[in-house]
From TrEMBL:
UniProt domain Ketoreductase: residue ranges: 7-194
Pfam short name (any one): adh_short
Protein name: SDR family oxidoreductase
Similarity comment text for this entry: Belongs to the short-chain dehydrogenases/reductases (SDR) family.
NCBIfam families xrefs: PRK07326.1
Gene3D superfamilies referenced in this protein's UniProt entry, alphabetically: NAD(P)-binding Rossmann-like Domain (3.40.50.720)
Length: 241
């Protein structure tokens, strides 16, 4: 996409963390952005904050949507189209993590992780595929290095992110014949509130949310003939163990 100004992006889980950072980066490039959250107040508050930070009132809206349910994602896509008239980019970012030994992991925690992280990615593209084919758009999932590297206590999270990585690559092969580009971004440690973390100056070594925003912009600017389909990104100098 040579000229991003006026393009429209839908970001799931866009009220904080990576989703918020990507939304801010896109708004600063002149895009119009829809962010979603299961919490309507959080979505509206984040949209107001983004509009204020980027001086883009009228270019960002927040809506309530739950990625675990296809109808909810279909409603979100319809609202994006009704509001801005087109949809060029969908970023499946919504996610959560439950960690612990398989002995302690509950069925509810397993279902929440898979339904949000993996089924949510399916629902996001299923709901938007017609719009992205019409615009020859871009679908990006936020996976994780945990989608290629397993660890103790990560059975649910690893399963969901391994799934997202493989799912996205298969979707890429399905949709590139229509001019739709598909990529997955696999970050390592990012400075967010994920899993109870509190960002601080001591964590300046971590990837920052604006770094992922910059990476998304780079992908969107890539020459249409070239597709970085799977991107691993990690801190340059993590603390020594």
């Amino acid at each position: 996409m040579k000229d991003l100004k006026g393009k429209v992006a839908l970001i799931t889980g866009g009220t904080k963390g990576i989703g918020f950072g990507v939304a801010e980066a896109l708004l600063n490039q002149g895009l119009k952005v829809v962010i979603t959250s299961r919490d309507e107040n959080a979505a509206n508050d984040a949209a107001k904050e983004l509009a204020s930070k980027t001086d883009t009132i009228g270019s960002v809206v927040g809506i309530q949507a739950d990625v675990r349910h296809l109808q909810s994602q279909e409603d979100a896509v319809k609202q994006a189209l009704d509001t801005f008239g087109q949809l060029d980019i969908v970023i499946a970012n919504a996610g959560l993590g439950h960690f612990g030994s398989i002995e302690d992991l509950t069925e509810e925690q397993w279902n929440q992780t898979i339904d949000t992280n993996l089924t949510g990615a399916f629902n996001s593209i299923k709901a938007s595929v017609a719009a992205l084919k019409a615009s020859k758009g871009y679908y990006i999932t936020i996976s994780s290095l945990a989608g290629a590297n397993f660890f103790a206590g990560g059975s649910a999270y690893n399963a969901s992110k391994f799934g997202v990585t493989g799912f996205t690559q298969a979707v890429m092969l399905d949709l590139r014949q229509y001019g739709v580009k598909v990529s997955t971004i696999m970050p390592g440690s990012v400075s967010t509130h994920f899993n109870g973390n509190t960002p601080s100056d001591e964590q300046s070594w971590k990837i920052q949310i604006e770094d992922i925003g910059e990476l998304v912009i780079d992908l969107l600017h890539m020459n249409p003939r070239t597709l970085p389909s799977k991107i691993e990104v990690r801190p340059t100098t993590p603390p020594s163990k």
